[in-house]
Design brief:
By secondary structure, the protein is of the alpha/beta class. The protein has helices at 16-27, 45-57, 74-84, 103-109, 126-129, 134-138, 145-156, 171-174, 193-198, 215-223, 251-261, 270-273; strands at residues 6-12, 34-40, 62-66, 89-94, 97-99, 115-118, 122-123, 188-192, 227-230, 237-239.
């Protein structure tokens, strides 16, 4: 099998129903030269069994990269997935987000040297989330006028957020827009693998979903001389509704330490874990 141009890394933890929705979106991508790397932060046996069953019949190229559940270790499993990935270009997405059919194409065709593409997402209401199914997504639900109309109606009712981020413009128009820089969201960004390896990947000290998970890598990439370009009206994705879990964490202290040191290359990244991937 040919080496794919793109590796799409999906950060997951349990919630197989969400992942199957997401994968149905990747089944119908307009750009096909990609692999999926499921970066699994210790999901349970039921999740692993269901995913393996899906892989056996899926048209997608999928690697499942897993480690033991020892709490929130997303940055660590992302580094492990990067090491396993085969593509020279990497797209990151979270397991609670759904891509429209041009998601991979928009990241790939807008790539540029020393540039990170930072996409955004529209947040679906609970009502809209409950109407989703893998079959509907395979049949073009996320791109349909009827679905997008409902997104905007829910936005006016203030139960869907950032409906404007569901609008996709042709790539030719996007390229005419003034370049804007905005921070990376961990659920929707892409870059050349070499740029990520240059800063030694994600800092594995962040062990909670809060400050530092994506702000740290954004900052260190800038220190390494990379540009962050906002991917406006491209690479559309929808965030599945769910309640948010807050966890006590030490992320602010770690991020403050990174800010003070101003080192682009972390000492707690990919190189440090290559001999210990358990």
């Amino acid at each position: 099998m040919n080496v794919p141009s793109v590796s799409v890394i999906i950060a997951v933890y349990n919630k197989i129903d969400w992942l199957l929705l997401l994968l149905s979106g990747f089944e119908k991508q307009s750009f096909r030269d990609f692999e999926i790397v499921v970066a699994d932060d210790g999901s349970n046996k039921e999740f692993v069994h269901a995913l393996n069953e899906y892989i056996q019949t899926s048209p997608l190229r999928i690697q499942h990269v897993w480690h033991k559940d020892k709490g929130f270790r997303k940055t660590r499993i992302l580094n492990k997935a990067v090491l396993q990935s085969k593509g020279e270009y990497i797209i990151f997405i979270d397991g609670d987000c759904l891509p429209d059919r041009n998601f991979v194409a928009d990241h790939w065709y807008n790539r540029a040297p020393d540039t990170i593409l930072a996409g955004r997402r529209a947040n679906l209401s609970q009502k809209l989330t409950q109407t989703l199914s893998a079959e509907k997504i395979r049949n073009g639900l996320l791109e349909s006028t009827a679905f997008l109309r409902k997104v905007w109606v829910d936005s006016f009712r203030k139960i869907t957020n950032h409906a404007e981020k569901s609008v996709r413009l042709p790539r030719s128009i996007y390229r005419m827009l003034p370049a804007k820089s905005k921070g990376i969201l961990g659920c929707n960004f892409s870059l050349h693998k070499s740029d990520l390896l240059q800063i030694n990947g994600f800092d594995t000290r962040y062990e909670a979903p809060a400050t530092g998970e994506d702000t740290d890598i954004d900052l260190r990439l800038r220190w390494a001389g990379k540009k962050i370009r906002l991917l406006r009206f491209q690479a559309i994705q929808f965030h599945i509704y769910h309640t948010r879990l807050d966890r006590p964490n030490d992320n602010d202290r770690i991020f403050a330490e990174v800010m003070a040191q101003k080192k682009a290359v972390t000492s707690f990244g990919i190189r440090e874990m290559q001999n210990d991937l358990a």
